[in-house]
Amino acid sequence: MPTPSITDIYAPPALGSRDDQYSPLRYWYLLTATGAFGLIVGILVLSDPSRSLKTLAVILGIYLLLVGTLVIIRTATDEDRGTGGFVLGAVTLIAGVILIRHPSQSVVLISMALGVYFLIDGALALAQAIIGPGRLWALIRGVVLVAAGVLITSSPEISVKTLALFTGIALCLEGTIQIVESLMLRSLHHQAGA
Fold first, then answer.
1. 22: which residues sit within 8 A by CB, 6+ positions away?
2. Which domain holds residue 53?
3. Tell me, what CATH number does 109's domain have?
4. Taken in order 108, 109, 112, 114, is the CA torsion positive or negative?
5. Residue 13 counted as domain residue
6. 48-81 pLDDT tens trace
7. What is the pLDDT of residues 102-149, one digit of tens each?
């Protein structure tokens, strides 16, 4: 049996190595699911922005619960993501529970929950743009989310219709970017297997 070299011991497997069951490339479909769900919810919200406050809160609460769960799963399967993904997942789950539990509360509560989610997700995307792979898409996603978070949290007394428009546009943009990122990961996954 040959003795492993220093490179074999200390060099991590290449990103997308088919042998690595924890490679983030293997789970590209989670990003696709998150993006598709965000795009669908964004379109639903934009299709009728004057829905009642309760309906908007429940739709967005369910979205946040699903996204929070998927973010935690994605973070657990990608050791390069760090604890930021767990924090985002926990905050997202809490915001989702708040929206579902108190759907008839004021627009201020809903806008603050969504605004904080957008700000934290955007900040993590901007951090990824600085230090991680996929910098351009992470930068675009981070700027869009931070802008949406700032718009929503800086004017919490906005109307339900305005909140729905901001949220719908942000969700559609975020969903589209996530789908594009997932297709890029899928391509890398298939190239690694070739």
1. 77, 78, 79
2. 27-193
3. 1.25.40
4. negative
5. no
6. 777 767 777 888 888 889 888 888 887 887 766 6
7. 777 767 777 787 888 889 888 888 888 888 766 888 888 889 889 988
